[in-house]
Design a protein that fits this description.
The chain has 160 residues and is mainly α. The chain has one domain: Up-down Bundle (Four Helix Bundle (Hemerythrin (Met), subunit A)), CATH 1.20.120.450. The protein contains seven helices and two strands; from the N terminus they run H-H-H-H-H-H-E-E-H. Strands 1-2 form a two-stranded antiparallel ribbon. Strand 1 (116-117) and strand 2 (124-125) form a beta hairpin. Helix 1 (5-30) packs antiparallel against helix 5 (87-107), helix 1 packs parallel to helix 7 and helix 3 packs antiparallel against helix 7 (126-152). It is globular and about 45 Å long.
Length: 160
């Protein structure tokens, strides 16, 4: 039987770098700094908050749970931040995290993918942690796209 672990991990790396990140970059390119931190209401998140949250969550699930590293995270700060962190700083931070994520994903093996690890959701497999990180990143990328379209009123041409 052929292992699906290596192709799955390659596809996961592709989702982060070839799909989600370019969409977020295109959104940030379409927005000024003020719109990155705009909130529809006090209970809603800004694009800046969503990027900080993606950074923290992806670090936790991939670097921490899947990679077994120590991750210090202040989840509340991801949502309470009001700026003015520059778009370039947000993007640099997210790119740096995804580079670390890519390293961890490149080292995982089929055996490791089935290991169980402690997490904030209880004990999960490394595979579960990786899939959760991908799903979570996709969901918030969609929110960033929607907020960008609402603020710009423009077609973003995301398929380029």
């Amino acid at each position: 039987m052929t292992s699906i672990a290596i192709p799955l991990l390659a596809d996961t790396r592709g989702f982060f770098f070839d799909d989600y990140l370019p969409k977020i970059v295109r959104c940030l390119d379409a927005l000024d700094e003020e719109n990155v931190w705009w909130r529809a209401n006090p209970e809603s998140n800004s694009i800046g908050n969503l990027i900080l949250h993606l950074d923290g969550s992806t670090r936790m699930w991939v670097l921490g749970v899947a990679g077994g590293g120590r991750v210090n995270r202040d989840r509340d700060a991801e949502f309470s931040e009001r700026g003015p962190l520059a778009k370039s700083a947000l993007l640099a931070r997210l790119r740096a995290t995804l580079a670390e994520v890519d390293e961890v994903l490149g080292m995982l093996t089929e055996e490791v993918m089935l290991e169980r690890r402690p997490s904030s959701k209880g004990e999960v497999t490394v595979l579960w942690a990786v899939l959760h990180a991908v799903e979570h990143f996709a969901m918030h990328t969609g929110q960033i796209i929607l907020l960008t379209k609402l603020r710009t009123g423009a077609a973003l041409q995301l398929s380029r």
